[in-house]
Queue: 2 jobs
Job 1
Amino acid sequence: MLVISCIKQVPDTTQVKIDPVTNTLVREGIPFIINPYDTHALEESLNLKDRFGLRAVALSMGPPNTEATLRKAAALGVDEAILLSDRAFGGADTLSTSKVISAAIERLNDQEEVGIVFCGKQTIDGDTAQVGPGIATRLGYTQLTLVDRIESLDLVKKRIRVRRKLEGRHEIVEAPLPVMITVVRELNRPRYPTVPMRLMALETEIKVWDNSVLKLDANTVGLKGSPTWVSKIFSPERDKGEIIGDGINDPVGTANLLIDKMLDKDLLAV
Amino acid sequence: MEATRELYWNIGHGAAVLLPMYLFTFVALGLLIWSGMKRLEIYRQGKPLDRFGNRGERFANLLKNALLQSRVLLVKGPGFAHGFFFWGFFLLFIGTIFVALQADFTDLFFGYRFLNGDLYKVFSLVLDLAGLAAVAMLAGLFIRRYLVRPKGLETTRDDAVMHALLFAILITGFVIEGARMAVNELPHDPALAAWSPVGLIFAKALSGMGEASLLALHRGLWWLHFFLVIGFICAIPFTKFRHIFTTAANYFFADLGPKGALVTLDMEGDAESFGTANLKDLTWKDIFDTDACTKCKRCQDRCPAHNTDKPLSPMKVINQLGEVACTNPEANLVETVSKDALWSCTTCRACQEICPAAIEHVNKVVDMRRNMVLMEGEFPGEEVMAAMDNTEVNGNPLGMALASRGDWAEGLPVQIMGENADVDILYFVGCYASFDKRNIKIATSFIHLCAAAGIKVGILGKEEKCCGEPMRKMGNEYLYQSMATENIETIKAYGVKKVVTACPHCFNTLAKDYRDLGFDVETEHYTVFLNRLVEQGRLKFKKESFDCTYHDSCYIGRYNDLYREPRALIAAAGGTIREMERSGAESFCCGAGGGRIMAEEKLGSRISVSRAKMAAGTGAGMLVSNCPFCMTMFEDGIKGAELEGQLVPRDIGEILLERLTP
């Protein structure tokens, strides 16, 4: 049985600035990382590989340089790393992205049964949290979002029980396989690649599947198949705040002042 | 009557004495050699390592440290006691050789005697005093070990056996001498007796006994003394007495390479395993080290981790490895020593610097860390793994954007190499001085000082990567080498003539560690560089006298023996240093070395707090250091010790800049 992790190579957005003149992302000199949530998805696929002997496959859609990210996944221990890359896939929104990834998963399923697909709960560059659910919908898998713990996995009965982390509460849910799970950071602690694995990963073949492999209608993928697109990026303007009181010499008085201010502005209620 | 004595007096010099005597002696020596050979098998479990080249230097090391006791004497008190005991006992050994040489060789075969006349008098006096010194020192060491009982000094059956044997040998020696003198010299040649002052005391005490009893006592004790010595020889391989040979040999085998150098691993070769997990991963010298240890605990006394209740004692680590080598060669070394102990090391080198047996502790710790990191992907905490990831992505452990590495220098008289590489020196800034607000001031002051002296300074800016030192000391040789190779390529491409660093960790790494990776550009620490400018008169300061204490960072002090230059700079600025008790080679680490700067200090108390208290104890209100890591730790430690307002951490560069005269 396969356990698949979908990972995305993203710019380290903590470092991304927006050019105030052109309103575009300044990406020069910004390193790429694996989307942080996806590292937990990847780690969980490896955990299940270690515990249940499932075969772990990492999938990523992106330009050819995404190979670096997949090689990192190989160094961490995935059995197979596949890059979904084609000029036709470029400029994709979440709809056409999930279409491509779903097609790849279906293709994998033809060779070996897919049990679980892990995705990060969202990416730090797009922040839509739509691709995971999009894949589940397309494939007809049960979708379990915001999972912070795998409670149990029964490979005979083909059932999985997970805990979802919701606002102020947890929810334990059980579902039949196959499932698509989006994960939060609390799920696990990603491992660090050992040197023998890194060296092995240098030799690992990163398979590239382009549209000649997936055979999707070119009008339904990439920019052409994307009903949404980014029309503008800008930093929201913020009113300048004010400095009130003297927090160093009169902390209590300043705190009171702050509370009054917040009551005034209806930010606090007594 | 010519001054001399009859050797073998009252014992006889026939076959009935010589045969058993030499038989037992040869059997004992044979046993000693046989045990030594067997011991070699234990060392041979380790990997090969060449420690035989440069024999001249090695022999000089051996003689200096064994005969002159140089390393032993680094610690006064017990060091001197050991030194004088050794010299006393050694002279007695030489004396005995002379006696045997004359009686059983030159006189026996050629009728030639040399122990007579004035030479004999001196011989008698010297040996008497040597014996006295040995007894007195041994008594002192006995009192220390069994009555004073210093904390951490482990006393075992070995120590009891050794003290008892040595005392018995020395005391029986004097009683034998006293009995002989009571019979012959005291009544017949009192003037000669005066040349054996200690023997004379024993002779007078014994003179009341009848001659027959004295002769019987003399003969009986002579044989007892003889068998005690045979016992001593036989005990060497089975007790800590073995250090007579192993420690001496360890001086010969000492690392002659750059101080504190680690082996640069071949990361791309055919090695299947990295670092030390099992005995077979150690070198024979690592195992030999464990046999040279006498458990004197000097290392442990100085270990910053041990002194702050962390589960590390360098001595214990060495002993544990020795135990595995002798009794359980299959054991996992990392498990045996414990991960917490290994992660606690700050690689400050205090243990190695003081070790009287020239044992190499730090490389063993790093090699075991290497196994944990490179083979298991383990770290002391998630924060360390995050720092490693940050370094891999952004070239610094702080997780700051790599493109902003040179931002601190904006508006300063400094060139970015990528824009203009026509410079006198390349300033390798390091991560902390590039990104950390407090430490940027160190970088800034260095730039201003250089500008004042007319030095054109360049920096790599966003092309600079972490030197890799904290990662390397944490065991991540892979990441270190990837940082190092990038830096080396970048620096080489600019044809730089000289690199200066303000960080001792960068300095040690570029100046020494990078050499293994093909870096050959001259590298200096800013204290040395600035001190030269001061000596050349290119920098002048207002002499405003001020009081401070100075902290020798590990990597400028112990690793590079730079104790003079930083102090000279402080003096040039008008500073008077109130030295801490632990200063110079005995300096106490700030806690940030060994990659610990990236780790939370979860075990025991905080090292930086201890050090801040020591600094405050001098009464000086300013703690001067030469290292961004130390600065970071002291900012923290001073808060932890609640010394804010009483103690201010400053960098040498900052002090100089404030007092600079235009």
Job 2
Amino acid sequence: MKLNSNISKVKQGALNVLQLPVPVVILFIATLTFLLLPQNLHAASTDKKILIVYQKAHGFSQQLIDRLQKDISKIGYQTEQMLLEPERLNLLKIHKQQLLIAIGSQTTKKLLEANIKTPILSALIPRHITKSLSSAHPEKKNWSSLLIDQPTDRQFHLITAVLGPHKNVGILLGPYTKDLDKALKKASIKTGHNVKIEEIESSDQLSTSLKALNNSTDVLLTLPDPTVYNKGTIRGILLLAYRNKLPIIGFSQAYVKAGAIAAIYSKPEQISEQLTIIIKSFFINKSFQQKKYYPDKYSVALNKNIARSLGIKLTSDKAIITKMKKAEKQ
Amino acid sequence: MNSKLSFSGLLLLPVSLFAANAENTLAMLGSEAMYLDDMPVIISATRLSQPLNESPVATTVIDRQMIDASGAQSIPDILRLVPGFTVGYLNGNSPVATYHGQSDRLSKRIQLVIDGRSVYLPTQAGVSWSDLIISIDDIERLEVIRGPNASTYGNNAFQSVVSITTKHASEERGHYIKGSTGAHDTADAIYRFSGQSDNLDYRVSMGTKNNTGTDLLNDSTETDYLSYRLDYQIDLSTQLYYSGGIQDSLYGDVLETVSDMDNEVEVTTAFQHLRLEHHLDDGNSFSMQYYYNYTKSFSSELVTTISLSDFGPPLTNIDDFDVYDTYDLESERHDLELAYYFNPGESLRLVTGGSIRKDKVIADNVFHPNTDNSLFLYRYFAHGEYSVNNNFLINAGLTYEKNDISGSDLAPRLAFIYHLTDQHTFRLSGSKATRTPTIFDENGYVAIQQQLTQDGGQPLNNPLLETILDGDILIDPFIYASGDVDSEKITSYELGWMIQLLDSKLIFDIKLFSDETDKLISKIDYVGDVPTENIDDLFGPGYAGEGAKDSINAAKTETHGFEISSDYQINNTWRLYAYYSYIEIKAEIISDLTDSDINPDRQNTIIGRLEESVPKHSYGAMLMKQWENNLSTGLSVYHVGDMDWLDQTHNRYDPTQSFTDRSAEEYTRVDLVVRKSHKTSGGEVDFSLILQNLGGTHFDYTRTNFTDASQQTVNIPGSEQDRRGYFELAFKFN
């Protein structure tokens, strides 16, 4: 870790004074890449400079950054990474990067506020934050996001694959997710489920709404709304649902570890793979094709012990994903 | 290395993130951290219940809806819903429950655990159902394992295990106040507060329970209790559970021989329970738990006054003396247990661990002098489950126990579970379990020991009497344990069939069973002269009634029968639960005892009592309905066939005894519960009306009258289960 940070300092140092020679190792890799790459690609790509900007890199985001740098290098573009600090924002404006990859919500927000002209592709960003940032920065055109949220249809496909068709799906929406109401209803009809939605404005209303759902639904689908699901409420929700034998579909791997039976999530390598495809397409088309992208590639986390305790037999994650993909195609 | 560092980084992240949220922009709330941050394990392996269709032994789960709909006023009341269980009220403050009969007032052969803590009382060698320091409102569910399960629950999980799970402290947040009034001057109140502070959830409950008891007996109740529970998330993978409580009670004490006397028994109970659970990164976990139970009970009742002078020389001028039935008992239990939960492979789940327990009883006049009345018990256990394939499970367990009284015992269990289809599951299981004799069985010594005086308190000056008595103290023991008692044994076989229809909304469970017990401990007349006894020297053998009683391994039983239960969630508002149980029992004296060990009359009594102790037929049903406007009702019917409790029975083999009543004659009980809740902006108001015994009065423990050996009709007033009603009013608010 210490070594990593030293390296990144060296890289940052190199970025600050761009005209200085790059370290020998990078030169060597670049030379090697140059020699190995097909001539036409090389010709097309050498001028494509991408800067991965981040504010905090821990665990998951660090893995994504590392992987992304490798994946981008493989297709012949130049990448650098940069820890975003306030004094560096102005430097970004004079940089020659053709594309900025913003890791996380805070990074995206800072870049948008700094009014940087370079196109931005955000990653690890939730849908509702892109929504609020879009309305705050309507002028920003060359900005797209690969969302961290999984599409609603896919959540219902997971429910079918895990619990079977025609389920009564309970959903708790809060201020950050209530705009999904229609989309969820539409997706449930499309996938053959019924939804029962309870909206709450504050966590005080949680207990009543959750009890209402417990009595009338087969499964609770959670969506990441901080008013509904936060550190203070998670224990109560999981325990109450478990007590009432109500399985929970979580929204992260950690949720599954905590007590949900299943969740869809994308691994760093899956996000990186999709980002790389979006980047390629961006350079070919000179713009982003979509304002936001949902993850194409995903994994499924399962808690077999809890499922079993609730009398639910889970097959393997691979079998579940196969079922989901089949359903998605239909 | 890397992952550990990032893990600790993430650990700090939520705090800083939420702190930032508070001061900064709300728009960034619910950022990607929600997806990426770790969360504590909430539903852990130790909390997981087994799916009913994979349980190695027939199991009944009574959930919160059923508890509410039953209108239960005590925990045994809830057990009326369990096939094979019989519940009786020895008196208004002493409910008793048993599975497959063979029980006296102490529920000796049931293991009762609350959140993993055994509440079996070493002093009484059983469960004191009124002194559990628990409010029914705090219970999340009861799981009743109908059969021995020593490999999981250890010592005394002999006939069945009742496992109570209380609500996690994070459930039912806010204030809760409930008042109850009704029959027999009932005046109960409960206050509970549940709150949260960062990673800590806590609950404090306190309550008082008061009534004048049933009409015919001196069986009032005055109980006050305080309990608390803390659930603390130390870090993402470590949870601490801590609970404790204290209860003070004053009960009207029913002394059957002198039932009109106004006596009382004071009982104080307390407990402390600490459990630490840690989840490892590989999905395995371990737990460590320690608990301490304390009970003190005191009663002193004047039984009779003896005038020795009435017997003439050499007992002239001897002062009269009062005989008190005095019990001053204190007991403690310390128990430390370590367990490791692990999955060596995808299809194998194991738990292994060990525990050490110390029971100590402090009591005057109850044990042989100079004996160490403590019992150490060591236990090692391992049980696991192997999925041969999706349809076939093998469940096995083994417990090794060693204790100071009966030495070491091995209790194995093996079960095969086969899912024929998604709807049909069969289980075949066999298990053995033991019940350790109590300290009282081993060291019990209860005697009238009276220093004789004469002429109004002067020292005894009667050389002849002093020679006969070998001093001036008259000793008449009525309990004299000769010791050397072995553990009771049970071997149980079960064939089960579970049918889950209509998407598991209709569940049937059928259990065929065959149980054999051996070495059941019974009281018999002490064989030979009791070494300390000198009253016989004065009056001749046999004067003092039946002489001293001893505890020995005397009998064995064979029990066969079947139980069927069904739970039907008819729709979102209707639910019907029903069961039927058929039991046959045969008892005999164990073969290595002869007529000189137990006299034939006593042998008949032991056999007769055991064989009468099980109702052949019993059934019950409960219809639950959720009406519009938050109105819910529960209608329950319970039917129990003729039976006797072991300490309140006649001996059918003794022709001189022709009792007209059983201690629990066949009865049908009908209860109705109506609950209405009204939600307001600030909280909730609940009204409940509980009506019990709508079908009429009956007695479920004590007999009303009988004809004794001299053909006299004796009337012993029983605990009358009369028609009664309770009204409850509860408020919930934040």
